[in-house]
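Researcher: Good morning. I'm working through a list of sequences from a screen, and I'd like to move beyond sequence-only analysis. For each chain I'm collecting a predicted structure so we can compare shapes side by side. This is the next one on the list. No need for commentary yet; just the structure.
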Amino acid sequence: MNNVANSRRNAARAERLQQKVNAGFVDKQYPEVASIVISMSYNQRGILKSLPRIVNFFPSSYALFRVDCLSKGCTDGGFDLSQVITSMIRNRRAVTNGKLNCEGNGISADHSDIIYEVTIQYT
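Model: Good morning. Structure tokens for this chain:
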């Protein structure tokens, strides 16, 4: 069973790396962007205290704006901020905020969410 679990983990890791490579780099996709900061509060059902998280994207970062879910039982989960960020760049907005539910499968529907604020600095 460990070999099967390791194979699945390795396949998932390889797929995530391929998604990053396919997305390209921030400086190539969005040359007008100097930095992107995602500040969020991660909330998991059954846990009263939210977890603050900050994710930074620089010109040399992959342009894949997806944040992983922290729930152990979540499969294929996470929070995809790609549409939020590309819309901000298209409209040259500096700050936006909102809430997203985890897209994952597994333990139960609606098991976690984030309240986020995205800040973009332009060149």
